[in-house]
Design goal:
The chain has 182 residues and is an alpha+beta fold. The protein is built from six helices and nine strands; from the N terminus they run H-H-E-E-H-E-E-E-E-E-E-H-E-H-H. It has a nine-stranded antiparallel β-sheet with strand order 4-5-8-9-3-2-1-6-7. Strand 6 and strand 7 form a beta hairpin.
Length: 182
C-alpha cells in the first residue's frame, strides 16, 4: 500500500512541475470575431493565440486564417442573420455581398485586433453544396432548401479593412511595429 501511495505522490509531483514549467506555453487568449449590422449581431466566430500578439498581428492572424480557409476563421450565423440582406454574385454562386440599409453600417469586430466599419461586406458561403437556383442563393439556401450556416469574409476585403480599422489607445501603445499615419 505504501508503494502505491509513493507512486501516486511521485506522479502528482511530476505533473505539478510539468504544469508550472510550461505554464506560459499553455496560456491562451480567446479572440472573438463578431459582425454587426447596425448593432445587431449577425455572424460570430472565434480563434485563439498565446496572448503575445499585438492588435496588428491579431488582425493579420485572422487574415491569414481566411486566406488559408481555416475552420477557425469561419463565421456562423446568429438568429439575427437576415438572408434578405444578401446580394448574390452573378459570377460566383458561393459569393454574396451583405448590404447595410441606408442608415445602417456593418461592423467587423476582432477582439484585441480592432473594429472596422463598412457599408457592404463581401462573404463566401462555406458549404460544399451550391444552390441550384440563384433565387435560392439570395436566401442562403442550398439546392435541398437547407440554410447555409457558415460564412467567411472575402480575403481581399479583410486586407482593406486592416488599414481602416479602429483600435484603442492602449492597443496602439502596445503595437510592436507602429506605423506613422501619412
Amino acid at each position: 500500500f505504501q508503494q502505491l501511495n509513493y507512486h501516486w505522490t511521485l506522479a502528482f509531483a511530476i505533473l505539478a512541475v510539468a504544469i508550472f514549467d510550461c505554464e506560459a506555453s499553455m496560456a491562451a487568449r480567446l479572440i472573438k470575431i463578431r459582425v454587426y449590422v447596425d448593432s445587431r449581431l449577425v455572424l460570430v466566430g472565434s480563434m485563439s493565440d498565446d496572448g503575445s500578439l499585438d492588435a496588428d498581428d491579431v488582425w493579420r492572424l485572422f487574415e491569414q486564417g481566411i486566406r488559408n480557409r481555416k475552420k477557425w476563421a469561419m463565421l456562423r450565423e446568429t438568429a439575427d442573420f437576415d438572408p434578405a440582406a444578401l446580394e448574390p454574385d452573378e459570377s460566383d454562386r458561393s459569393r454574396f455581398t451583405l448590404l447595410a440599409d441606408k442608415d445602417e453600417r456593418i461592423c467587423v469586430s476582432v477582439s484585441y485586433g480592432g473594429k472596422a466599419y463598412v457599408r457592404k461586406l463581401v462573404l463566401h458561403r462555406m458549404r460544399a453544396h451550391v444552390p441550384l437556383d440563384p433565387k435560392e442563393a439570395a436566401f442562403g439556401r442550398k439546392g435541398r432548401g437547407e440554410p447555409a450556416k457558415v460564412w467567411m469574409i472575402d480575403c481581399e476585403q479583410i486586407a482593406d479593412l486592416f488599414d481602416s480599422r479602429w483600435i484603442t489607445r492602449r492597443q496602439a501603445a502596445d503595437l510592436n511595429r507602429p506605423r506613422q499615419l501619412e
